[in-house]
Write a structure and sequence with these properties.
Blueprint (H helix, E strand, L loop, with lengths): L5 H4 L4 H27 L4 H10 L8 H12 L13 H6 L3 H19 L6 H5 L1
Length: about 130
């Protein structure tokens, strides 16, 4: 689902929406690690290096930290894939946890598409 899920659209409070988006990041990150290992055919060493550098992803009860962790994962300081959507500044300057999570999810989905070898049609579908 590239857009917001029906469950998120039906959320009655910002805190519920934040919790839903924060929860969605977990499986996306795991898939990102799988695709990273497959693309670079190095077993789990790239994932292990990233996890060692960043530690564990913060829980859903810490949504801003979770979004910042995702931004650091896909846009590490000083290196990273040149074609990766740059989200670090947008996450840092977002005003609310929900905005931070939305930017992080956008960047993560974009990165997943690129790891699969495709381009995410942001300009025609999601935006």
């Amino acid at each position: 689902d590239l857009g917001l899920s029906d469950e998120l659209q039906a959320a009655r409070s910002p805190s519920r929406a934040v919790s839903l988006v924060a929860r969605e990041l977990g499986p996306l990150v795991e898939r990102w690690f799988e695709l990273l290992a497959r693309k670079y055919d190095d077993g789990d060493s790239a994932a292990a290096r990233a996890r060692a550098m960043l530690g564990d992803m913060p829980g859903i009860d810490r949504p801003s930290e979770r979004a910042l962790w995702v931004a650091a994962l896909i846009n590490p300081c000083g290196f990273g894939a040149p074609d990766t959507l740059r989200i670090r500044a947008a996450v840092l300057t977002s005003q609310t946890p929900l905005q931070r999570l939305a930017v992080a999810k956008t960047g993560l989905v974009d990165s997943l598409y690129k790891l699969k070898g495709g381009m995410w049609p942001m300009n025609t579908y999601y935006w």
